[in-house]
Design brief:
Layout: H1 3-42, H2 47-82, H3 84-88
Helix pairs in contact: 1-2
Length: 89
């Protein structure tokens, strides 16, 4: 296995990781922005007011995007395992 192959596998793994985590990060970011605007408008500075909605939205997003995330991940792992003979030989 050449260094170029190792770098290519690592790069592709990072791309898959970013692709899978993007829906959760975007949902948390949007929820945090909405809660922050609400806190600024009402002048309520409670830490749990920011944490609980983010937790709920991430959970709902995980339920909605979970099957897609699982499909992408198993697809990547399947392709990686199928390429082992080519990587060794």
């Amino acid at each position: 296995m050449t260094p170029t192959t190792v770098i290519e596998i690592g790069r592709h793994a990072m791309e898959i990781t970013l692709l899978i985590s993007a829906p959760l990060f975007i949902a948390a970011l949007a929820t945090g922005l909405i809660v922050s605007i609400f806190q600024a408008a009402t002048q309520i500075n409670e830490a749990t007011l920011s944490f609980v909605p983010k937790l709920l939205v991430i959970f709902i997003t995980l339920i909605a995007a979970g099957p897609w995330m699982l499909t992408v991940m198993t697809d990547y792992i399947r392709r990686l395992y199928e390429s082992i003979p080519m990587l060794i030989g």
